[in-house]
Amino acid sequence: MTNVDKVIEQIRNANPRRERSSITDFKGMHEFLKFVDLPDNFADLLRHLWPVIQCKSKEIQGRLSKPEQSIEAYHELIIGYSLFEHCRNNFLTLEYSPKIQNQTPDWVVYDGKQKLIIEVVTTNKSKSHSALESCLDLIKILVERGVKSKGIDKPVSYNASRFTIPVFSGNPSRIELDNGYNEFCKEVSYRIISKLMSGFGRDDYETDDSGIEYKIGLGIPSRITTRGYETCRVINSILDKGKKYSDLSKEIPVIVAVANSHQNRSKAYSPSEIAKLLYYPDTVYEPQFSRITDKEKHIKNIQDRIEDLNVLEGILFYDINVSSIYTTCYEYYPNPHKTTKWEIPERFKAYMDGSSNECKQ
What we know:
Number of domains: 3
Largest sheet: 6 strands, mixed
Strand content: 5-15%
Low-confidence stretches: 222-226
Number of strands: 10
Strand order of the largest sheet: 1-2-3-8-9-10
Helix content: 40-55%
């Protein structure tokens, strides 16, 4: 029998926590942002869910051991924990990743002979590993260390709304790009440190040639908001699941569960707005959706994929709190356009009716 504590130990050995304090160059920062750290409470999840997931322990261990897959797997487990608690308290059965008609949905709920598929979409895979984000964060670290070494133990505030990075001509290799960005970050941080040490940036923001504004302050970063820009990606991820499970939806009802954290929720519209855009695409012309610039493209996308939408029973939006597995809240939005004739298992309806008001605030 597989020992859960041994699995936990092997996962953490293969996927150790990365320390921000150890980052010294662009490549290190790029990797740090690219792969979001697996929270330590994954161990509690595995212990709680072990009766359900033990049969898939090798698969789970493999995914949690890989930085590029671990957050997606972690989110599946957090949603599974929420489902497991409800199922256990309401005499339902929960199964993880069973094989049904050559497909392996994430979670299947059983109420006697009735079944329900819960398929997870995660929107939390880090998008903060662009060269711009990596350069900005590296500059902040280098400045932080530089001013501290010179006796200034105060945080620095930044506004990066106009920050730009170099564009390299030709077709540079990955190594050449890394080296180029690394030198750029060192030069910018050196200029900022020199200015701060000369007394600039104590009362008002100073502007570096790179576009970064900086001053001695509260250490608060700011930037022109990009809220809403990942909405299209979320919508298409939901529709992709409808397409994938189209055939299976003829036999078993399918609900898509969208998992994300507070950080990534801020990059898209709210769950209620996403559901509105998905179910009623013409509402894209309403004022609150001003950041969706190509409105006709949005409408056409939904029209072209209406069959992928119609097979879904609805969407569960989860707000994942990475610091605790016990405070996950969620919202359910039934699909008014579904063409299936399924009834959700009666004892599972209470779960959807229990959507947390905290998520909707």
